[in-house]
Specification:
single chain; about 300 residues; alpha+beta; Rossmann fold; Tumour Suppressor Smad4; 2 domains; eleven-stranded antiparallel sheet; four-stranded parallel sheet; 15 strands; binds adenosine-5'-triphosphate; ATP binding; YegS/Rv2252/BmrU family lipid kinase
Length: about 300
């Protein structure tokens, strides 16, 4: 078995990359391991693909935040010889919050991977890309898209870019006029704030849109939020963050294998923090497409 560590030196701030590097060299010293550092956005996809396509049995460790996981998954998901492990040294690390019985410290403890366990996991597919966690269209996708733009400004770091982006998106129209196709059911045009298609259950720094979503059940959990006034949105954000929004009549839930978001114009589609502009995206589940390699724990993870 080969162990490939792909480290994003720009991710998060907590765990020092030097410390992680030393730990890898100490814990994995008697194994066949390689440590690679990303040098630019998108590089983790290239590295993961380069190794996974050799067809050798391997575990690829995505060391970073959710953006790094997304890049690594996109490079390796077609190759069954490669499993994915997660070392959450990013800022939000929302994907791993799905695992109630494995803490962030467990994921960070390299010793735990000597005797880990496999969990086949679904992926969400759209427009030649996959994501492990959550895809969305509407207000939150716009926020993600604008963060990247604000980050390019001088003296603007990630946190400030996020605040600027939320503020800016809040001032723009918050109505997205879309029709939906959920499996074979057509739902006519309506104004939404956003539409979330989830495999995992947390995103955006701890928001909990789909508390019942399971990463290995073969389904996409969809929630839609109808257009509301800005004041109403502000009063409800806390409930949305806590996952307590589902009883409101402006929230609808669906579970499906495939959906389409239909509109007159292109939409911004967010897939785990990566955004693309597309017309009428089809979003579908790829059942058990990837194997997660989880650190040792006492009970089953999902
Ligand atoms: N060497 C690099 N220089 C600049 N950016 C990089 C480099 N390597 C990777 N990136 C980019 O860094 C971005 C942020 O990474 P990531 O999402 O993993 O960390 P984070 O934002 O701290 O965590 P989270 O998404 O969990 O909040 C990714 O979009 C990735 O493309």
């Amino acid at each position: 078995m080969k162990y490939i560590f792909i480290i994003n030196p720009e991710a998060g701030k907590e765990k020092s990359k030097v410390e992680l590097d030393n730990e890898i060299r100490s814990v994995f010293k008697d194994t066949d391991f390689i440590v690679e550092y990303t040098r630019y956005p998108g590089h983790a996809t290239e590295i993961a693909m380069m190794y996974a396509s050799t067809k050798e049995e391997m575990i690829i460790f995505a060391c970073g935040g959710d953006g790094t996981i997304n890049e690594v998954v996109n490079g390796m998901y077609k190759y069954k010889n490669a499993k994915l492990a997660l070392i959450p040294i990013g800022t939000g690390n929302d994907f791993i919050k799905f695992f109630k019985k494995i803490s962030k410290d467990d994921f960070l403890n390299l010793e735990g991977y000597k005797d880990g366990q496999d969990l086949p996991c679904d992926l969400i597919y759209s427009n030649n890309r996959v994501c492990l966690n959550i895809a969305s269209v509407g207000f939150d996708a716009r926020v993600v898209q604008k963060v990247a733009r604000f980050k390019r400004l001088p003296f603007v770091n990630g946190g400030f870019a996020y605040i600027l982006s939320v503020f800016n998106s809040f001032l723009a129209s918050m109505k997205f006029h879309q029709a939906l196709k959920i499996d074979d059911t057509y739902i006519g045009y309506k104004n939404y704030i956003f539409i979330v298609a989830a495999n995992g259950s947390y995103y955006g720094g701890g928001f909990h849109p789909t508390p019942d979503a399971k990463i290995n059940d073969g389904f996409i959990d969809v929630i839609t939020i109808d257009a509301l006034s800005r004041l109403r949105v502000m009063t409800l954000i806390k409930k949305y963050k806590a996952g307590e929004h589902r009883s409101f009549d402006f929230v609808k839930e669906f579970r499906c294998k495939k959906m389409q978001i239909i509109g007159k114009k292109e939409v911004v589609l967010n897939m785990d923090g990566e955004t693309i502009k597309v017309k009428d995206p089809v979003i579908e589940i790829l059942e058990k497409q990837i194997t997660l390699y989880l650190p040792k724990m006492n009970e089953t993870a999902a």
